[in-house]
Amino acid sequence: MKLFDNKVQETKYKVLREVAVQTWKGNDVFAEFNEVASKIIPKDEPPQRCCIYKDRAVVAERMRLAIGGSRKNSNVVQVIDIACDECPEAGYVVTDLCRGCLAHGCIEACKLKAITIDENHHAKIDKTKCVDCGRCATACKYSAIHNFQRPCEIACKVGAISMGPGGEASIDYEKCISCGSCVYHCPFGATVDVSSIVDVINCLKESTRKDSNNPTVAIVAPSIGSQFLYAKLGQVITGIHKLGFAEVLEVALGADMVSIKEGQELVEKGFLTSSCCPAFVKYIETKFPDMVDKISHNYSPMAELAKFLKEGHPEYTIVFIGPCIAKKSEVRKPEISKYVDYAITFEELQALFDSKNIILKEQEETEWNQATYYGRIFARSGGLAEAVTQALKELDVQDFEFNPISCSGIEECRKALMRASKGLLPNNFIEGMACVGGCVGGSGNMIRYEDAPEEFEDHTEEATAVKIKPNLRKTINIL
Fold first, then answer.
1. Which of 171, 253, 348, 459 is deepest in the core (most CB within 10 A)?
2. Is the predicted pLDDT of residue 37 greater than 90, yes or no?
3. d(CA 63, CA 81)
4. Reduced 3-state DSSP string for 403-471
5. Rounded to an integer, what distance in angstroms lies between the CA atom of residue 244 and that of residue 214?
6. Lowest-confidence pick of 6-15, 276-285, 391-400, 448-457
7. Residue 446's closest CA among 9, 18, 1, 40?
8. Got the DSSP string for 338-352?
9. Mean pLDDT, the chain, whole residue set
10. What does 48-100 look like in DSSP terms, one character per residue?
11. Closest CA relative to residue 278, chosen from 290, 286, 270, 266
12. Cβ atoms 272, 294 nearer than 8 A
């Protein structure tokens, strides 16, 4: 069973693991740089870049982001410029397939006179005039003109990434929604999410002291059912406890809370967009500001559960563990930061396990069955709408026709929001997920949902609670 989708994730994990090892020991991470770097980039192996010195310089930058990054840059997703391969300028280019034909249909198609013919009758594109309209590519009978794009630019569906002045990738943070798609898709790992792993370890060390009255509590996203497939879920929960977490709770409980509240708000307002995905919410705020008032006023499942816990136990330090890089931005919002202290990904959780030599397959199983089926299916596209349908039944709503549309990925979200903004959308509820497939496709996952659909579905169906409201009443009394 593979642990990661690609080598970039594996390298990122190695840095996080070694940083965690040093932090558990109480060492200054950069004081131990040579030890860390030698484990990640051994000197007797061929360098990944031009030389071992550049490889280790990139490791140093990764370490800097792993310990929280610079205070001068508060953005969650950042570019390591020396790691960027500075891919060739994107856009339409003439390839070697050009036959130097007599027709030169590309010239006729270009209205801006951006194409010239050299002495070999081959076409050339003047990038200072080209606007990437694509007419030349359409006109070429040999398909010799191709639209090349950087992987990070292709991955970013909100157009937040472009070429910087030095050729490296540059992020426009006015457009960025922190979805982390560029982090996952960059083949060189030049785009990286800032980590709170050091802060979390320090909290765990403090909370497990005998005289401590500040327990650290983990709230875990339901998409964990598609991760850590080399062990049983109950063993994973035991492993989280062994890290020092006093409690390990399902964020699906927060999803149960949201489904009831969102159903009530929808009936009251008549039209609503979901508020569960922070990247989707940010997308509305940046691209469709006139629709901000349509966003549900309810918190995300993470924040709803954390709010309930903090109101009863203000001494808790609450750490969200999930698939979502955008959650790292969400927990920095003033209205959320008072409830959730830190957010880490499943990638970072794996690094924590290995930094403490916790072998999950050797652990006893912990029973973990707090939420309903409906709370757990929030992790996949369409799950939220299905849960709200159930909530409306339990609320005994009679005179309201629920007509949702579930959007998987930002492109589908854009189409639905565009129609809604013009009054052309027949639906009265937009469930928006920035990641294709939903949270199970999140950029902080170790593997994609398509590699583990059965395991996730098994996790949802193992929920013993049948109805949302009765289960919430019972669980709230326990918590």
1. 253
2. no
3. 14
4. CEEEEECHHHHHHHHHHHHCCCCCCCEEEEECCCCEHHHCCCCCCCHHHCHHHHHHHHHCCCECCHHHH
5. 12
6. 448-457
7. 9
8. TT--EEEEHHHHHHH
9. 93
10. SSS-HHHHHHHHHHHHHHHTT--TT---SEEE-TTT---PPPPEEEE-TT---
11. 286
12. yes
Q: Which amino acid would we find at residue 391?
A: A
Long-range contacts of 305-309 (CB under 8 A, 24+ apart): 305/219, 305/249, 305/251, 305/253, 305/254, 305/257, 306/219, 306/254, 306/336, 306/339, 306/340, 307/339, 308/254, 308/257, 308/476, 308/479, 309/217, 309/219, 309/249, 309/339, 309/479
Give me the count of residues in the chain: 479
Are 402 and 266 in contact by the 8 Å Cβ rule? The answer is: yes
Q: Note whether 345 and 294 are within 8 A (CB).
A: no
Query: Could you give the C-alpha distances from 250 to 168, 260, 297, 384, 475, in angstroms and in order?
Result: 40, 17, 22, 16, 11
Structure tokens that stand for 429 in this block: 């509820």
The mean pLDDT value for 245-249 works out to: 96
Burial of 173 (0-12, 13-18, 19+ CB in 10 A): middle
pLDDT of residue 429: 98
Contact criterion met (CB below 8 Å) for 151 and 140 = no
Q: Which amino acid is at 184?
A: Y
For 367, the token pair is 């029973």
Which tokens in the block code for residue 24?
Answer: 């558990």
DSSP state of 198: H
Residues 6+ away with beta carbon under 8 Å from 318? 216, 217, 219, 306, 309, 310, 339, 340, 341, 342
Dig out the tokens for 276 from the structure: 């569960």
Of 61, 57, 95, 5, nearest in space to 323 by CA: 5
How confident is residue 230, by pLDDT bands cut at 50, 70 and 90? very high
Tokens of 39: 């484990």
Q: Which two tokens mark 211?
A: 């005289």
| pLDDT tens per residue across span 67-85 | 999 888 899 999 999 998 7
d(CA 188, CA 7): 9
CA 383 to chain centre: 18
* Bridge partner list, 322: 345
